[in-house]
Write a structure and sequence with these properties.
Oligomer: single chain
CATH topology of one domain: Ribosomal Protein L25, Chain P
CATH architecture of one domain: Beta Barrel
Shape: flat
Number of strands: 27
Strand order of the largest sheet: 12-25-26-27-23-24-13
Length: 755
RNA sequence: UCCGGCGUCGUCUAAUGGCAGGACAGCGGAUUUUGAUUCCGCUUAUCGGGGUUCGAAUCCCUGCGCCGGAACCA
């Protein structure tokens, strides 16, 4: 239930399309139930967030439910600490599973009963092969496996041994329960996969009740079934497990049959996402913990200061598809800035202070009014900012001999201090080593509040604080964890060596005094610098702030030498000579010579038995193009195993095309009707009045109606978009009830548009 | 190599036989007391080769490339 209202409306995707179609078809009684099924053996990361948003999002959109289920079937890796962190993270992301919190470990009894049932039905057996033997018997991806010598044990013996497994009479690894499927299956997952193994281990929830534990492929689908899940959504690496998923559900004869759908997992540039690598970073102390703000973990993102709104928006924007994809982290960063722009009040802070003395300041400190929000954000509020004779600015905002486009402070130049006065630099003080230690400037009293002096239109603005008033704080500047786009993608290079040593810089910074009351978790924008959050390491008045994300820096970009354009696919030359094509099979060769057809046609025919039988009953090569191009499409897309007509009907159809009764397009419509069982081609033509027309008057009239109704498209055509003619042709044909001769429509249309 | 999946702007993703669209990134301009934001504009793509069709990113054949699958992990 559950997604909060402010969740961005998700654009549709192939999974939502499927759910929508299932609901419309009344599948599962129109019910929608999804689940997010993490194993509690690690922390959630932004890749999980994608799955969470998908599963909870779909449930919310279709009035269904989304369960949170711990897939805890491996006692040796799981831990309640992870359960707690997962619950916290899902909740923090803004989702609510309500009553629907489940644990696979709660199903151990039911799973065990079904395993006994499988044995009783002769669909599972206890196998005593060792692990190495089993893998040897399994064969390889290109060679079939061999049956285990224990495969034909009697039901009684299997039942007895399985019960003894449960009682703890065997050592770990001594035997397993296997599904009895097919050792020769091309899908390795189907070669009698183990479904129960012995583990004399303490489970964090069931304690020492069990010493056998079900494996994923067995437990997961049944858990889905127990929970009456309708759409079991998972990532692509489980694709070959789907066949087994379906087998288990069917073989155990459970009443509820969920269906699995896979989508591509999220990869992000400049970071790593695998549990193994994340664990290695944490355990190897490359980061400070699971919540290190540089990590893509939910805990890390939260500590970094990113709001769940930004993550949800990001997940909505990346979409859901099956392509292997690596999303540019710049998109995440964009979502973070976009979210914080309207949420973080602006304040002044200096990260790398340089002293500025205002030589003509001869009074008490001034109290300036400073709005918290810029003009384009409709929010109220301001604070006082003290201005005095001794200020601090960021070192970056001064250059002794600046280029022309540097609109900041330099000897003899003026700059506006944000919310303050315009100052002019008169003198640069340096230490013995030649480093600048102080700037001596004068202020213009007429410019209080930042008003531009007469005649000075273009004036840079920089941030500053008053030295005597500013707070001394710790600021942690976080950046991308890795310095390369795809860590680990270069052969022979350890991915850990690609960590960016500068992903964290800690500085002592000075911030305006209003931050004295800032609370942990509060976010600010330090003007011109970035977004910051008060970190939980803050102790009393000793503020610690994390940089969430830097502001975009147009000037820095100007300075950077342009990256050479990475362009041009390094693919072209291969296209020169056509690669050797696959030799024709014996069957195809025979077809080719019998019917005098092309290689391509023979191949397509040989691939599809249904097509072959149609051709045989037709006995004429004339129907081959239609068979290969149209009939094949229909039977593939509708997954047909048979059709309610034979080849003679196709010959009849072909004759109708030949004598001009039907256009090719109409023939396709007739074919669809034939598949729907509406009778012979001639009957369908008569019944539906599908006869093709070449009546120019009628066609012209239709074209005129279409052109009148689509003036904009006509304009685009005349403006040079030739492709529009396709759409207009289609529309015109449709206008005649699909009966117009397409070629004629095209000719007339072209003539009409030209004239 | 066997089975399966996937190939659309630099990146992610739409277009379900009929005008290749959007977002991010990039580039240019306007506005700006944040070189931010906002606004406007621009560049850039259907993996190659054949076929079917009036019309193909989409259907068929084929080549190529990438990913996943041989845990008693999930």
């Amino acid at each position: 239930m559950s997604a909060p209202i402010e969740t961005p409306p998700a654009a549709s995707d192939f999974i939502r399309d499927k759910v929508r179609a299932d609901v419309a078809a009344g599948k599962y009684g129109g019910r929608v139930a999804t689940r997010f099924p993490p194993e509690p053996n690690g922390y959630l990361h932004i890749g999980h967030a994608k799955s969470i948003c998908l599963n909870f999002g779909i449930a919310a959109e279709f009035g269904g439910v989304c369960h949170l289920r711990m897939d805890d079937t491996n006692p040796t890796t799981e831990d309640p600490e992870y359960v707690a962190s997962i619950q916290r993270d899902v909740k923090w992301l803004g989702f609510d599973w309500g009553e629907n919190m489940f644990f696979a470990s709660d199903y151990y009894d039911a799973l065990y009963e079904l395993a006994e049932k499988l044995i009783t039905l002769g669909r599972a057996y206890v196998c005593d092969l060792t692990e190495e033997q089993m893998s040897e018997y399994r064969g390889t991806i290109s060679e079939p496996g061999r049956d285990s010598p224990f495969r034909e044990r009697s039901v009684e013996e299997n039942l007895d041994r399985f019960r003894r497994m449960r009682k703890g009479e065997f050592k770990e690894g001594e035997c397993v329960l296997r599904a009895k499927i097919d050792m020769a299956s091309p899908n390795m997952k189907m070669r009698d996969p183990p479904i129960y193994r012995i583990k004399h281990a303490h489970h964090y929830r069931t304690g020492d009740t069990w010493c056998i534990y079900p494996l994923y492929d067995y437990a997961h689908c049944l858990s889905d079934s127990f929970e009456r899940i309708t759409h079991s959504i998972c990532t692509m690496e489980f694709e070959s497990a789907r066949e087994l998923y379906d087998w288990v559900v069917e073989a155990t004869e459970v009443p509820w049959v969920p269906k699995q759908t896979e989508f591509a997992r999220l990869n992000l540039s400049y970071t790593v996402m695998s549990k193994r690598k994340l664990l290695e970073l944490v355990e190897g102390k490359h980061v400070s913990g699971w919540d290190d703000p540089r990590l893509p973990t939910i805990a890390g993102l939260r500590r970094r200061g990113i709001r769940p709104e930004a993550i949800r928006e990001f997940c909505a924007r990346i979409g859901v598809a099956k392509n292997l994809s690596t999303v540019d982290v710049a998109l995440l960063e964009h979502c973070i800035r976009e979210d914080l722009n309207a949420e973080a009040p602006r304040v002044l802070a200096v990260l790398d202070p340089l002293k500025v003395t205002i030589t003509n300041w001869d009074r008490e400190p001034d109290e300036l009014d400073a709005a918290y929000w810029p003009h384009d954000i409709p929010r109220e509020g301001s604070r006082k900012v003290p201005f005095s004779g001794e200020l601090l600015i960021d070192r970056e905002d001064f250059m002794e001999s600046p280029p022309k486009d540097f609109h900041r402070l330099a000897p003899g130049r003026a700059v506006r201090l944000r919310h303050g006065y315009v100052i002019t630099c008169n003198e640069v003080i340096k230490d013995a080593a030649g480093a600048v230690t102080e700037l001596r400037c004068t202020y213009d009293p007429e410019t209080r509040g930042g008003a531009a002096p007469a005649g000075q239109k273009k004036l840079g603005t920089i941030h500053w604080v008053s030295a005597a008033h500013a707070l001394d704080v710790e600021v942690r500047l976080y950046d991308r964890l890795f310095s390369v786009e795809q860590p680990g993608s270069t052969e022979g290079v350890d991915w850990k060596s690609e960590l960016d040593p500068q992903s964290l810089t800690v500085v002592r910074a000075r911030v305006e005094p209003s931050l004295a009351s800032a609370k942990v978790g509060e976010r600010f924008q330090f003007e011109r610098l970035g977004f910051f959050i008060v970190d939980e390491d803050t102790r009393g008045r000793a503020l610690v702030l994390n940089r969430v994300i830097a502001l975009k820096d147009g000037y820095a970009k100007l300075q950077k030498p342009k990256e050479p354009e990475k362009r041009a696919r390094p693919q072209a030359p291969a296209a020169e000579k056509p690669a050797a094509e696959k030799a024709l099979s014996r069957e195809a060769l025979a077809l080719k010579s019998t019917y005098g057809i092309t290689d391509d046609e023979a191949r397509a025919l040989a691939n599809e038995p249904l097509l072959l039988s149609l051709l045989e009953s037709a006995g004429r090569s004339e129907v081959v193009p239609f068979l290969v191009n149209e009939v094949l499409r229909e039977i593939r897309s509708k997954e047909l195993a048979s059709v309610p007509f034979d080849g003679t009907a196709l010959v009849e159809l072909q004759l109708l095309v030949n004598d001009g009764t039907l256009s090719n397009k109409l023939a396709k419509d007739v074919l669809a009707a034939m598949i729907a069982g509406e009778g012979s081609p001639r009957e369908i033509v008569d019944k539906r009045g599908l006869k093709q027309t070449t009546d120019e008057g009628a066609i012209l009239a239709a074209i005129e109606r279409v052109l009148a109704a689509n003036a904009d498209a006509v304009a685009r055509y005349r403006a040079g978009n030739q492709n529009v003619i396709g759409a207009l042709t289609g529309l015109s044909i449709k206008e005649t009830g699909g009966r117009a001769n397409p070629k004629l429509v095209g000719e007339l249309l072209r003539k009409k548009l030209a004239g």
